[in-house]
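Quick review question:
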């Protein structure tokens, strides 16, 4: 939600915000944190879990408002990595794969607290564990899935939940209570979206990476070019040329289908993240923010260059070429591809870490299109959630897809001393890389 919209809503929930401040101060005095009862990359087993929305409704409104306001107003350089952790929804019961950052889910939750048409979407639970009472609030799971287009006409739709660390839990859509937890014990969840599951063995999973519906059919990989009309792009080649000095030593071509087959066979080589803003922290500090971010997914370039091109001695440079055949970026030291401290700036100048260099075939959960036209075959402007909110008369920035500007994108995180800066491309359409080995 934009900062001016948040300010407009301030008066409406001022009383609740004051309550939230008092509660947060009390929590800090008592040594509580947002992670109480919810360690990162693990699950807890609370006892006595129960839905109790009225008990915590006032504190929730205020806490969410303050958290979102603080995140939007964060200083340049503030670590926003947790707010850009994503939750993926996919499965044959859904029309498309849908990607939501934690920041987008928080914005949707804030809307649900204030819009009568979304009142069933906001939920909270409380439970006791080790003699302490905890609360979690967020998006009621089945209401959220239905808003995203899932067919839950039967309560026994199987769901496979995967955490960011790879833990897997299988439940059915009829489990109650169940919610995507965004506020835990009065503060925004520290590690991205969590998932509270009630039933006979309640648990809190933190953070959650993917919810797969209809697991007996497997992952349909909606992000890939595996169905009409996207399969027309299956044979589009990506070229990698390797030079020693001025002599061409090797020229390799990889088709879209080949790259995606490698991705399925080598899931550890796949990475996704937000890219797009053409600036690093230094340039944003001096020139200001702006720009945009989209979620791209593809193969890690260090894996591709090593496993498929045999690069082991990371000495030399690289030149990147766009779809028009013109060079648009140069990497002076290819050991850049083997570094660790990559980041992307948000339009507000915050830092999102972990944005490793990738060759992307997917944008915002949909296959990248070779055309740059907005209305070409296979173009998806918005996801199902966005359309559902529009039908309710709400104008939102959630659920934007716009999967044009391919056929591939090379996504490059800023890396101090190696790559990045003002007008350095971080998500450019690319069809060829030339490596000049030293």
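Suggested answer, residue by residue:
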């Amino acid at each position: 939600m934009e900062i001016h919209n948040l300010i407009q809503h301030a008066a409406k929930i001022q009383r609740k915000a004051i309550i939230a401040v008092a509660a947060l101060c009390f929590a800090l005095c008592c040594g509580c944190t947002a992670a109480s009862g919810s360690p990162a990359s693990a699950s807890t087993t609370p006892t006595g879990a129960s839905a109790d929305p009225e008990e915590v409704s006032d504190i929730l409104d205020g806490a969410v408002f303050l958290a979102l306001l603080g995140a939007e107003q964060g200083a340049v350089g503030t670590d926003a990595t947790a707010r850009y952790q994503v939750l993926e929804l996919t499965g044959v019961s859904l029309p498309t794969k849908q990607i939501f950052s934690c920041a987008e889910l928080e914005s949707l939750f804030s809307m649900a607290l204030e819009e009568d048409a979304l009142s069933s979407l906001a939920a909270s639970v409380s439970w006791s564990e080790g003699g302490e009472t905890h609360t979690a609030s967020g998006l009621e799971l089945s209401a959220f899935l239905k808003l995203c287009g899932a067919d839950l006409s039967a309560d026994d739709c199987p769901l496979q939940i995967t955490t960011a660390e790879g833990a897997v839990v299988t439940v059915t859509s009829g489990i109650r209570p169940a919610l995507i937890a965004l506020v835990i014990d009065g503060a925004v969840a520290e590690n991205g979206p969590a998932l509270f599951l009630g039933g006979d063995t309640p648990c809190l999973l933190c953070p959650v990476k993917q919810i797969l519906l209809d697991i007996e059919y497997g992952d349909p990989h909606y992000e890939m070019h595996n169905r009409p009309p996207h399969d027309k792009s299956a044979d589009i080649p990506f070229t990698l040329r390797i030079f020693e000095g001025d002599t061409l030593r090797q020229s390799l071509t990889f088709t879209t289908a080949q790259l995606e087959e490698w991705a399925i066979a080598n899931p550890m080589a796949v990475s996704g993240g937000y890219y797009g803003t053409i600036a690093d922290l230094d340039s944003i500090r001096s020139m200001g923010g702006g720009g945009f971010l989209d979620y791209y997914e593809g193969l890690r370039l260090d894996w591709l260059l090593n496993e498929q091109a045999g690069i082991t001695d990371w000495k030399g440079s690289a030149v990147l070429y766009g779809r028009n055949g013109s060079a648009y970026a140069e990497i002076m030291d290819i050991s850049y591809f083997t570094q660790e401290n990559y980041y992307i700036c948000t339009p507000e100048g915050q830092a999102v870490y972990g944005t490793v260099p990738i060759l992307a075939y997917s944008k915002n959960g949909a296959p990248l299109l070779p055309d740059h036209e907005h209305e070409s075959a296979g173009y998806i402007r918005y996801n199902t959630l966005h359309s559902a909110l529009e039908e309710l008369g709400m104008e939102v920035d959630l659920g934007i897809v716009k999967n044009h500007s391919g056929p591939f994108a090379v996504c490059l995180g800023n890396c101090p001393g190696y790559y990045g800066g003002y007008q350095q491309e971080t998500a450019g359409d690319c069809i060829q890389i030339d490596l000049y080995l030293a």
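Why it works: The chain has nine helices and 26 strands. Residues 1-57 have pLDDT under 50 and may be disordered.
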